[in-house]
Amino acid sequence: MAKRVSVDGWLFTVTLLLVFVGLVMVFSASAVMAKERFGSASTFLFRQLAWAVAGLLTMLALMRVDYRHYKHPALVFSTIGTTTLLLIAVFFLDRSHNTHRWIRFGSFSLQPSELAKPALILFLAFFLENRFKSISSNSGLNSMDDIRNTLLPAAVPVAVFLALIVLQPDLGTAIACAGIAASIFYIAGLRLRYFGYSLLAASLPLYYLLFHVSWRRERMLAFMNPFADPQGRGFHMIQSLIAVSTGGLTGVGLMEGKQKLFYLPEPHTDFIFAVISEELGLIGAVFVVTLFAIFLVRGVRTALKIEDPFGRLLATGITCMVCLQAFINVSVVLGLLPTKGIPLPFVSYGGSSIFVMLLCVGVLLNISKQIE
Predict the structure, then answer these.
(1) Which of 62, 142, 212, 339 has its C-alpha lying 20 to 30 A from 51's C-alpha?
(2) Count of domains in the chain?
(3) Torsion angle, CA of 344/345/349/351, rounded to 10 degrees?
(4) What are the C-alpha distances in Å from 67 to residues 25, 258, 345, 361, 370?
């Protein structure tokens, strides 16, 4: 079969639709808040639009760059090194919302943990493909069984990134990074027992982080029974559920939602799906979820059809990054998971997030061009 000469139209179209929905809903969710804080209802919209345009232009450019150029060791290790330095640098800067997550230059801000996701994807794809090549002559050997030369060198950068992100603190993003790494390891052939060992090793630190850190313990208690303290720890989740249930089938109408009016926390970021559900109803919510489902199907298709191991691992990591974050965000809004600070990809307000996502989609679209 001849090589494709164009990118995956489904992936491209779904991404554009999600960005468009995001811009519309960011304005709807933030207009009143922006007017109150900055005197202009369009402040958050224009900021998001600037990042979206920059991201889309970058995506269009990367669509035309052969993904195999990213195999260069200098690029891979400089990316890992720079991201590590940025993750460390945030601890020497002023706190924002009691966390060390952002590097700010005037009105510009950068969240290094967003860069950690593509950096890990690139490193793992590069390193594991090299390990595949190094043992190609030993057809009976699984490189992922080589703990000393494969598993540990691949796992150490992941562990370092996770530790730095947890210390910010940002447990939600750390869990997302762990899930992305796990998907790549699985596709690379890691045996299931190693995932069991990893979960066992992580269980005690995770238990401590969830139940012995006061504000996370409050979130866990709110998740288990938000109505036990409706004006306190359960307030956020209850307001989210009210927004979702109020929408009904067709919603109350765009810009007509009430929960975003200083009831729903972070309506334009972490809880923007609740605003979508309230204003566009079940139909709007299902439409957004369907777009992510299509993205998942087409991303998995690309990963399965590409013959190059490097491309397969890159496609796997990028697809997991987008869809895992979408799953976590929607689950939090619906009360299926404890509250986490995970944005809805392409939709939630956040410059670093939308730019990095679109950058990665550009790479994924180029991979889709190489399918035979």
Answers:
(1) 339
(2) 1
(3) 150
(4) 33, 45, 22, 12, 9
Please tell me the least confidently modeled range out of 91-105, 135-149, 227-241: 135-149
In a domain, 4, yes or no: no
Render pLDDT for 176-207 as a digit per residue (tens, 0 to 9).
999 999 999 999 888 889 899 989 988 998 88
Q: What distance in Å separates the CA atoms of residue 366 and residue 8, rounded to the nearest whole number?
A: 9
Residues 190 and 98: their CA atoms lie apart, in Å, by 38
Helix (H) or strand (E) holding 105: strand 103-105
State the residue range of the domain holding 73: 9-369
CB 324 within 8 A of CB 342: no
The answer to whether position 57 is within a domain reads yes
Q: Is residue 3, in this structure, part of any structural domain at all? A: no
Burial grade of 210 (CB within 10 A; 0-12, 13-18, 19 or more):
middle
pLDDT digits (tens, 9 = 90+) for 240-269: 899 999 989 999 999 888 888 877 877 888
- Of 45-54, 261-270, 287-296, the one with minimum mean pLDDT is 261-270
Rounded CA gap, 167 and 99, in Å?
A: 9
Does any domain span residue 41? yes
